[in-house]
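Dissemination and training. As part of the outreach component of the grant, students in the summer workshop were shown how a complex can be specified as a set of sequence lines and then modelled as a single object. The example used during the hands-on session is reproduced here so that future cohorts can follow it. Participants entered these lines:
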Amino acid sequence: KAGVTQTPRYLIKTRGQQVTLSCSPISGHRSVSWYQQTPGQGLQFLFEYFSETQRNKGNFPGRFSGRQFSNSRSEMNVSTLELGDSALYLCASSPAGATDTQYFGPGTRLTVL
Amino acid sequence: KQEVTQIPAALSVPEGENLVLNCSFTDSAIYNLQWFRQDPGKGLTSLLLIQSSQREQTSGRLNASLDKSSGRSTLYIAASQPGDSATYLCAVRGNQFYFGTGTSLTVIP
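and obtained this result:
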């Protein structure tokens, strides 16, 4: 079975721009979670989606948003980028009924200049 | 708000040594605790999951313990190998996952 895939792997943007990151979960997984990882704050939970519905949201500003499609693929969007948004963005998928078992993708490295 | 702390932040040991990584959390109302491994440029891999009602879990050379009342967990790695070099993260599950900042482990051949 293919693992979790994230595209693109690397991205460079400038302040004020917006960005969309994509995550394809493992086939059959319906839950997708997003995390931001920075050297200073570590790994922080952004949001969780299950069957196209946001189930949980972390403590991030409204500039961070996401969605999930009927095929379980998920996207997250960051608008009006700030320098502090530079981070590794990780996506994880879980099978239904076992949301504690998370399979992580390799991440998207976002650099904001 | 749940705070998860890992000590030490970095550790360097010679091959073959046994070692212990520590994780502490402030809110004992958790569903479970997990230990993950992260290799450079890669995502996280789950190593061990301990439910809140359990005291420990073992997998091969790894043993993780949980003392929920004191807000502590340890990850014991026996007979360390160079391939164990990675960053180890603990995470507690409440209404969401809360991660520690990790321990960067280097095992010297």
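Chain A has a mean pLDDT of 94. Students were then asked to discuss how this feature might be tested experimentally.
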